Amino acid sequence: MAIMLFHLRNPRTVLRKALTGLILFFLGAVSAYLVSLILPQFVAGTWGTHPLMPVFVMTLISLVAYKPIERFVKWFLEKYLFRRKSYAQMTLMDLAEDLRTNLDLQELANMVVNTFGEVLRLRNVALLVPDATRSGFEIASSFGWPIAVSKRILLACDAPLVQHIKESGPHVVVRSPLLKSLSWQEANEMGGDFDVLRSGWVVPLFVREDLVGMIAFGAHSPDMVFDESDFHFFREFAEAVAPCVRNAQVVRQLRNTNFQLQDSQAEWFQKTKMSAIEKLAAGIAHEVHNPLAIISGKAQVLLMQKNRAPLEPHIEEALNVMVKQTRRAADITRKLLMYSQESKSPREWFSLGKILDETVSLVGYQASLDRIEISCSVDPELPEFFGNVQEIREIFLNLFFNAVEAIESEGRIGVELRQAPEAGIIEIRFSDSGRGIAPENLEKIFNPFFTTRHAAVGLGLFVARQIVSRYGGAIRVESQAGEGSLFIIQLPCRQEETAGSAKIAPLGKVLIENES
Amino acid sequence: MKKRLLLVDDEIEICEFLKSFFEDRDFQVMTAYSGVQALAKVESFNPHVVLLDIQMPEMDGLTALRKIKEKHPKTKVIMVTAVETQDKIEEAMRAGADNYITKPLSLEYLEKDVQEKIDSLAGV
Question: A275 pairs with which residues across the strands?
């Protein structure tokens, strides 16, 4: 069964193992025979002819010498029978074969640099691929590099080294002989490129005429040399790996384009939706406010007549209620209109707590119908926030809608506004007792058009995340299926603005007081 | 001299109750149901104050406002809106409106505001 499995994996490995086994068996048998011949000459008496004696000696020998002999046999086989490939080369070629089906550029690059670095015992290895703008090469993955450094490296397309590779084709570029062949000035520039890559050797990855990447590596000791056959092998390896790298790059590009497309689609959808809501809200407001004005106006006229003739108390109260309730009805349509209007207003200072209150009054009725209890706790010390009211309102609304949908009926929504332990950050903690989020969806809920409901578009959380990131903040979610969810938004306060716009801040406050 | 007030709204009911309200308070009141009518009444009636609805057929409130202010810069105009979008309000204030109020109206506030405007005219 084991052999069958090996066979399925790689016939060469089976062949190699069989040959090694055969040779080892042969060597063992010959030495056992020799031992049994020689032993009586050296050991006197009955011990010399005892049948167990050769077995004993052979056991001793194999305990001491089996491993080195096995290694030697393997090396011998690789070198003379399998086209003189070293163990390292075998590993790398196996890797190249494995990579053929891998389309993840990052994973592929990691495997190449790590295997390369380990089996060749190199100081450092880097796999370079064209960056997103195609203006140069960046490090996709590195071995033996400090990560922070490798992320910053960018080798421009017109760098001397890249130019040289493009001219010389798929040959391995070796630092010292190349530099010696150049003029002092050129060597200096070219040497700079090698220094940036910390390398002595660069293996170009070509797909036909196209340079799709480079493997650059450096050795621990300057004496480390690769011979002609090694270079031949590197070329062979590069030919095998280059198409994989190219494929993975194409896949990555497609994926990025797809994301961008989704994003712009989502944005367009959002805009269209908002302008439709705005028109609708404006229409409703106009049609509803006029009748409300008439009801309220007539009630007020009646109320004012009490100066001449006193009204019965229950009639007076009823009239007061009418006036108050028409105001309330008008407030709702007004808020709907405010919500839908595109955020034309510039950023200003305002209190997050006030926006939260407004949003709660907008969604509160629907929530109470579904028997959902909303509780808010706002840190009284919370600083004012500098931003666009419309956008912040949108975040709250989307989170509320999301929570109400998750709860369906009966439950709790808790909102907490507080200062995060880190200085200068406001934290919005939004919890619900809804059905929670399945682990496999946790990653996806902020994607555009992702939804688990039939009638939903799946933009709410996406829009919320877009806005939060516009303020340099972050949104994350903690949830377990069946146990509700907790959304945590962190928004940085604009500290530097606080000092600079000290004059603006009080003005904002006055405006808000006027409104209320 | 009686205080003259012109009410302009395409909702007849609104004009009616405002009319009775202000007549009770010793105003001379006329009504108009569109911007075009309003312009004609401003000429013939020469009101101290005009209450002007923004959204109306024939000629909307903003256009009427501009025409009134062009010919009678002294006439006070208070805009009445059912839908106050920020840009509409700004536009009205730029065009010379003296104030704006939103529906549903608070009659108490409206009376105070109209009286203020008339007082300011008398002061000049």
Answer: none
Q: What is the mean pLDDT of residues A496-507?
A: 41
Which of A31-38's residues contact partners 24+ apart within 8 Å by CB, and which partners? A31/A58, A31/A61, A32/A58, A35/A61
The 10s digit of each residue's pLDDT in A316-364 is 999 999 998 998 888 777 777 766 665 555 788 889 999 999 888 888 8
Give the pTM. 0.49
A425-460: b or e for each residue (b if 16 or more CB lie within 10 Å)? ebbbbbbbbbbbbeeeebeebbbbebbeeeeeebbb
Burial class (CB in 10 A: 0-12, 13-18, 19+), A34: exposed
Rounded Cα–Cα distance for residues B55 and B81 (Å):
7
**Contacts by A227-233 with C-beta closer than 8 Å and gap 24+?**
A229/A84, A231/A171, A231/A172, A233/A85, A233/A89, A233/A92
B105/A290 touch (CB, cutoff 8 Å), yes or no = no
**CA A166 – CA A207 distance, rounded (Å):** 12
Q: Is A243 exposed, middle or buried (0-12, 13-18, 19+ CB in 10 A)?
A: middle
How many residues comprise chain B?
124
DSSP A145: S
d(CA A458, CA A444): 11
The highest-level CATH class for domain B3-118 is alpha beta
The beta strand positions in A336-410, using DSSP E, are 348-350, 372-378, 385-387
Contact B82 A294 (CB under 8 A): no
Burial of A479 (0-12, 13-18, 19+ CB in 10 A): buried
Tell me whether residue A27 is exposed, middle or buried, using C-beta atoms within 10 angstroms of its C-beta: 0 to 12, 13 to 18, 19 or more. middle
What pLDDT was estimated at residue A223? Answer: 60
- pLDDT at residue A81, as a whole number: 66
Closest chain A residue to B18 measured between Cα atoms? Answer: A297
Residues in chain B with CB shorter than 8 Å from the CB of A301 are 17, 20-21, 107
- The C-alpha R_g of chain B, in whole angstroms, comes to 13
A476 has a chain B CB within 8 A of its CB: no
Write down all domains in chain A, each with its CATH number in brackets: 2-84 (no CATH), 102-256 (3.30.450.40), 345-515 (3.30.565.10)
Q: In the structure, how many helices (H) and strands (E) does chain B have? A: 5, 5
ipTM of the complex: 0.87
**Contact between chains at A296 and B105 (C-beta distance less than 8 A):** yes
The first and second tokens of residue A344, run together, are 């034309």
The alpha carbon torsion through A97, A210, A248, A145 (nearest 10 deg) reads 80
CB under 8 Å to A384, separation ≥6 — which residues? Answer: A349, A350, A351, A352, A505, A508, A509
- φ, ψ for residue A182 (rounded to 5)? -105, 165
**Among all residues of chain B, which has the CA nearest to that of A301?**
B21
B-chain residues near A341 (CB < 8 A)? 85-86
Interface test with A, best of B107, B111, B112 (most A CBs within 10 A): B107
Closest Cα in chain B to A285: B83
Domain boundaries, chain B: 3-118
